Amino acid sequence: MAELMGSTAPVSGSIDRSERPGRVGLLLVLAGLLVGAAIGLSFVANEQAQSLIVWLLALLAMAGVFFLFALAIGAIQLSGQGARDDITKAIVDAAPEATVVVEEGGRLIYANEAYLRIAGGDNFSNLRSVERIFVGSPEVSEAVYRLAQAAREGRSHTEEIRMSPPPSGTAEREFAWFRISVRALSRPRRPAGLWTVSDITHERERQENVFQELQHAIDYLDHAPAGFLSIDPAGSIVYMNATLASWLGYDLATVGPGGPHLSEIAPGADVLTSAAGLPGEVRTDRFDLDLRRRNGHSLPARLYHRVAFGKDGKPGSSRTFVINRSAGAEFDEPQRAAEVRLARFLNNSPIAIATLDRTGRIARANASFARLFGAMPRQAIEVGATETGPDPSMGETVTERDRAVLEGALAKAASGLGDVQPIEVALQGAGNRSARVWLTPAGGESATDQSLDEADRERVILYALDTTAQRQLEQQVAQTQKMDTVGQLAGGIAHDFNNVLQAIIGYSDLLLASHKPTDPAFQDIMQIKQNANRAAGLVRQLLAFSRRQTLRPEVMNVGESLSELTLLLKRLLGERVDLELKHGRDIWPVKADVNQFEQVIVNLAVNARDAMPNGGRLLVRTANVPSQSEAEARGGAPAGDHVLIEVLDTGEGIPSELMEKIFEPFFTTKDIGKGTGLGLSTVFGIVKQSGGTIDVQSTVGEGTAFRIYLPRHEPAEEPAPEPVAIPSPPAKLAPPAKSAETGAAETASTDTAEALPPPVPKEVRKPSADHTGQGIILLVEDEDPVRAVNSRALSARGYTVLEAASGAEALRIVEDGAQQIDLVVSDVVMPEMDGPTLLREIRKHQPGLKVIFVSGYAEDAFRKNLPEGEAFNFLAKPFSLKQLVETVKKTMSA
Asked: What pairing do the DSSP bridges indicate for beta strands 590-592 and 352-356?
């Protein structure tokens, strides 16, 4: 810019016509008026002339006084050279940048000395505007046009142009760079634009020199005999030099954002981005691993990986130095080949391997160790370097509970003992990870060519295997065995308790039949029966948990069932909990018991409501989960197509120590008297018995998500069955060709199913229906109270009852043949001979004999012990005497 710089003293070479010039015409008019006034007074009488002269002089005096006051307060300023010689104008006049002011219409009103030198003029008559000075190449003309357009629109704009040759008035050279700016000036009269022109040739030359030096440095780095690499914390390759790109077979133009990822050139080398460091630390690690060329071949390499950590402990982009260790790249080929084989063996091993010192500090480790434990030793490149912190310790990678065991095993191995037993340790971090660790002495104590410090740094060799999946599988198996054991116990208790309730309900019915509603004891008997029925409800929940309850599966639409439950759920949840249902599209049908499915949803909703005492949101969502999709990723979902029902709440969450107990019967975290502990256990049993799976995930303070996977129902295309002639029983007692699985729900005529369905038949049925009948009934029951009350009820209805306390006794009665038996009502679980065995023996003597099984267990629990297609009726305990006589009457009259 020296070409445009002038003296620092006020420059008189600038020209300015921005000020308004004085007008001589006005002065002449004023003089003419005064002369005319004097001439006019000469024609006036002396007396009048004197008064007029006085008034004229007074008017001129007043004008003069007002002028002086205006001049004193600055309202009127005197034009001239003194007004323009202020400090602001002096600065602009002496500015090194060429400055010109152009009024609207292209009239130049100011130009400083620097602009006069560029324009080659000394007055406004021969002064050229910027548009006329900078002309030449199309690029220059286009830039000037954009500037002129911005000036006309009153906005600011800047352009940098290259002039070859430069305008006159600049130094003698082939070309010059100029920065031209324009902006609008605010003026009380006509608007104007301020143009500035700066010579930036030297600035551009410096930039080009820096750029050339940078290009040389990049060229040196690109063609260095070693590879250079930069990786950001996400694993993206920020930079790769040409040498490394040629080794790997990549085009250098494709490397960078959107180019190859670290996982593509170094599979399994996530250890490069997983190392942790201290705040402000600069950490350098050495890795021997195989890079992958673009053609899939491996490239053995040694990496010196340096990462700087910020004050917050977050890593920055790496500076990685890569040495090619492939054949022919080093002079000592045998040693190189041996080192490469050893490095491949260690780094590609699925077993975590590391060397430790006496205190457990990690000296060296392979990639599997870093993936398992998340710790790598801090290695300094130069001896005595202080930029690295202390090596991480094995004690930092395991939980506090297992540190003492690890330290004991480490002390044995460091002392030279070779029979250290493997230990199981839990690892730090999320996921409840665990590992099995072997520790052995490193040996080499007698080596003379190794310093004592280096020998002590690698005293113990550690081998470790990830046992997280194995431990989780063992826990799942143990939990399953535990739940099955508890289920068997609960089922046995429920069965025995059902017999007790059966007797209580039966005798209550007998007492109610012998008392009138006006009898004082009638209400007491009703209370006994009602409480017995409540106890029966608890028993049904136990049976649901043990998966031995009676289910009536049918093909159902999950979305429709949930929609029908909406009003009930809103009443249960209350006003403080928002209910939201989201149905997936084209949800597959499932086969399940509708009533039990609704109980599952209600139990989960009530459980979620109790977890949100201050209100919240409950979301019930459905979706199809195809096989081999995200089902495996969600955890707990089996293979195959399933329908997912999610129940998500925003409650308090379930602590991890309670997650393994939530499905156990009678386990509850609620206050005494506020829960039975059977809600979730019932859900678990119903889902399992329906062939589904339930999975739960919870975060304390955020909420809980229950996910139920029910298998998709795909109806088999079967040919229409041919009619089968059945002499006496109807189709529902002996359906044709049913399998043992599907027949469980369709071949048995169950009075429970007729007592539970829609209440319409019950309302239509008249209380005075005839339940009496005739016939001989063989009643088989090992519980004396149950057998006695059932016998009394049937005898009171006109039937002849033959009682048997066991299956063997009943079989003797049938074999005796003294009386023609019309119907057998038998318990299922009995000593000596159970119900299914009794039925098989009876068929040998009377193939067409009708049978009703009664049991507290589900029908499916014993159907598998019967021949395929066997016809019978089933009545679930506990039942009322009315249900018993109705079932007997229907079966007898069929």
From this structure: unpaired
Tokens 């004085």 found at: 22
Beta-bridge partner residues of 850: 823
Query: Which secondary-structure segment (H or E) carries 706?
Result: strand 703-711
Distance CA 399, CA 404 (A): 10
**From CA 771, how far away is CA 749, in angstroms rounded?**
18
Q: How many Å apart are CA 232 and CA 245, to the nearest integer?
A: 18
**Residue tagged 């139990």 (tokens):** 603
CB 420 within 8 A of CB 440: yes
Q: Please write the tens of the pLDDT for every residue from 160-198.
A: 888 888 876 565 678 888 899 999 888 777 788 899 998
Burial string for 597-618 (b: 16+ CB within 10 Å, else e) reads bbbbbbbbbebbbbbbeeebeb
Whether the bond between 165 and the residue before it is cis, its omega within 30 degrees of 0, is yes
Q: Tell me if 381 sits within 8 A of 304, measured CB to CB.
A: yes
Token readout for 721 is 């069955």
d(CA 151, CA 191): 10
**Are 581 and 617 contacting, i.e. CB atoms less than 8 angstroms apart?**
no
More confidently predicted of 158 and 218? 158
Of residues 792, 798, 796, the one with CA closest to residue 776: 798
For residue 97, what is the DSSP state?
S
Q: How far apart are CA 674 and CA 671, in angstroms?
A: 6
Q: Kindly report whether the peptide bond that precedes residue 167 is cis, defined as omega within 30 degrees of 0.
A: no
Q: Which residue has the tokens 């590391």?
A: 354
For residue 642, how far is the Cα from the chain centroid? 22
| pLDDT tens profile 405-452 | 988 888 888 888 777 888 999 888 777 788 999 988 887 554 444 454
Residue position matching structure tokens 């020199």: 209
Q: Do residues 319 and 232 lie in contact, with contact meaning Cβ atoms separated by under 8 Å?
A: no
CA distance 554 to 594: 7
In DSSP terms, 703 is beta-bridged to 699
Half-sphere exposure for 842 (CA within 13 Å, toward CB): 31
Tokens of 405: 């065991």
CA angle, residues 661, 666, 669, in degrees to nearest 5: 65
Average pLDDT over every residue of 248-275: 81
Q: Which helix (H) or strand (E) holds 520?
A: helix 520-545
**Residue 764 φ then ψ, to 5°:** -75, -35
Q: CA dist 120 to 115, 132, 170, Å?
A: 8, 12, 10
For 138-158, b/e burial (b = at least 16 CB within 10 A) is eebeebbeebbebbeeeeebe
Sign of CA dihedral 607, 611, 612, 613: positive
Q: Which two tokens stand for residue 151?
A: 């000036």
Alpha-helical segments (H) within 102-200: 113-119, 130-133, 138-153
Phi, psi of 461 (to 5 degrees): -105, 130
Please state, in angstroms and rounded to a whole number, the distance separating the CA atoms of residues 849 and 775.
13
Q: CA-to-CA distance for 854 and 837, rounded, in angstroms?
A: 14
Judged against a pLDDT cut of 90, whether residue 622 lies above it is answered with yes
d(CA 736, CA 839): 19
- Report the Cα–Cα distance between both ends of the chain, in Å, rounded: 118
**Cα separation of 306 and 303, whole Å?**
9
Closest CA to 274 of 363, 397, 356, 423: 397
- The C-alpha atoms of residue 67 and residue 64 are separated, in whole angstroms, by 5
Q: Where are the beta strands (DSSP E) in 391-528?
A: 423-426, 434-441, 460-466
Whether 312 contacts 233, CB under 8 Å: no
Q: Give yes or no for a contact between 368 and 270, defined as CB atoms under 8 angstroms apart.
A: no
Strands 642-649 and 237-240: unpaired
